[in-house]
Write a structure and sequence with these properties.
about 10% strand, alpha/beta, TIM Barrel
């Protein structure tokens, strides 16, 4: 919904609420909002019955101190539970580099905790690659961050990388508190495959995965993510939620 959100945030919130969505996640440009504007957004969400339990953040939200303080203030206004880092800083490489990065993530956990907020990391395809010690990057992240640190699973990138999302959830009990329900199918974007398939149209074993996320992963809420499709952004959001409801019989 990035395009629609950039054009008209109030209309976007109103439209997705009308479709039946209950939770939204703002991405990194929210960090430039003023506290006054964040309060306006929160009021609109409250009126629509929407909640924002997590935000996506660039690394600037975690450092330095004044940036973290700003992120804390905005997230508290929005009613957020988790600040999720959308990706590692450029140049992060090797086992030692990722372990050093994890030290920063662990520090963020401790800094956010007194404010009633948690931290997490959103994977992309790159983090499924193996490092020189044979571990996947995500395995290093999981092993070197506290158990309360959220491993926000981007399902589509896991599928594309040839990893098993169900096995990943089961290997990290209680840490998959949020999932991005992005589907994937073999093929290219030009053929309407890849990430352009709607939720439920791809190769993901959704029923098994959602069951594992809820029974083992500790899922608190689920977010539908889409990287373009054959439809407009609003139509895509509408159809993905309809597919979810048809598959699981719930909003």
């Amino acid at each position: 919904m990035r395009g629609e959100l950039g054009r008209d945030l109030p209309l976007t919130l109103k439209t997705v609420a009308k479709f039946g969505y209950e939770v939204v996640e703002f991405y990194s440009p929210y960090f430039n909002w003023t506290p006054v504007y964040a309060k306006e957004v929160r009021a609109r969400m409250d009126d629509l019955g929407l909640r924002c339990y997590s935000t996506h953040n660039g690394f600037e939200s975690f450092t330095p101190a004044e940036n973290l303080a700003r992120a804390i203030e905005l997230n508290q206004i929005l009613g957020t539970r988790y600040l999720v880092l959308a990706g590692a800083p450029g140049g992060t490489s090797g086992v030692d580099g990722w372990k050093s990065f994890c030290e920063k993530l662990t520090a963020a956990v401790e800094q956010l905790k007194p404010h009633g907020l948690g931290a997490g990391y959103h994977n992309h395809q790159a983090e499924w690659a193996k490092l020189e010690n044979g571990q996947r990057i995500l395995e290093v992240v999981a092993a070197n961050t506290p158990r309360e640190f959220v491993l926000q699973l981007d399902v589509g990138t896991c599928m594309e990388a040839g990893a098993d999302p169900v096995a990943w959830v089961k290997a990290n009990p209680g840490r998959i508190k949020i999932m991005h329900l992005k589907d994937w199918a073999p093929g290219g974007d030009a053929d309407g495959k890849g990430y352009r398939v709607l939720f439920g149209e791809g190769a993901t074993p959704w029923k098994e995965l959602i069951a594992a996320a809820r029974s083992v992963g500790g899922a608190e809420f689920l977010l539908i993510e889409q990287e373009g499709s054959r439809f407009s952004e609003f139509e895509t959001a509408k159809r993905c939620l309809e597919n979810w409801k048809a598959m699981f019989g719930e909003a």
